[in-house]
Amino acid sequence: MPRSALANHHNARFEQLAEELGAIARLFGSRGWTPATSSNFSVRLDGNHCAVTISGRDKTRLTADDLMVVNLAGEAVDGPTGARPSAEAGLHLSLYRRDPTVGAVLHTHAPNSVLTTRLAPDAEKISLQGYELLKAFAGVTSHDVTLDIPVIANSQDIDALAAAADRRLDAHEGICWTYLIRDHGAYAWGPDLASTLRHLEALDYLLGIELELSRHDRRT
Question: Does residue 185 sit in helix, strand or coil?
């Protein structure tokens, strides 16, 4: 597929974006968050387009050729010949459509996010309370809060999964920048790539602490 006027317009930004996402992907790879070509990333380019990772690519070797442009309806606008957006692009697009301030979405299969939902098979949310690091989430100004992380049942029907996530976010009370998909992984978003990365890293750290506490409780 030839490069479009949109991609040409964003060419310098597109290359810079690829470098930023590539660095993040390598960081995630070093942590074991993106095994076997899993995970997907996207960044909003304008009001109706985003750059999203291409399906099946090794994210730890991400370059501009591993990204493509889609509109918010999920239609390919620009990218390498034969490329398809990530199978889960619909979850990214749903977040962009529901909130025009969302600037980036990151999804990983980090072990802490998967273990958390495996160990709490009936939980519909994970509550994080009292941690200083909760202030890493935009809008949280004190440790003295409870942040609820929705847990959504997994499905191979991405449209149905996106609709389920939308319903949960519509009903959610309070600040929410992340959710977990059961037995699958974590989604995080934010106004820009840096804040989205911060949200995802804070979530993983806090889930790790909760897992350690649960191990301690089982030993005592």
Answer: strand
Check: CB of residue 177 under 8 Å from CB of residue 190: yes
Find tokens 């978003």 and name the residue: 189
Which domain CATH number covers 23? 3.40.225.10
Give CA–CA dist 178/205, Å, rounded.
13
What is the distance between the alpha carbons of residues 68 and 84, in angstroms, rounded to a whole number? 8
Q: By the 8 A CB rule, do 150 and 115 touch?
A: no
Range of the domain at 54: 5-219
Q: What is the pTM of this model?
A: 0.93
**Rounded CA separation 118/121 (Å):** 6
Tens digits of residue pLDDT in 78-97: 888 888 999 899 999 999 99
Euclidean distance between CA atoms 85 and 102, whole angstroms: 19
Please tell me the total count of domains within the chain.
Answer: 1
- Look up tokens 């074991």; give the residue: 32
List Cβ neighbours of 49 (8 Å cut-off, separation of 6 or more).
6, 69, 70, 71, 72, 77
**166 and 102 Cβ atoms separated by less than 8 Å:** no
Which residues, 6+ apart, have CB-to-CB distance to 125 below 8 Å? 148, 149, 150, 151
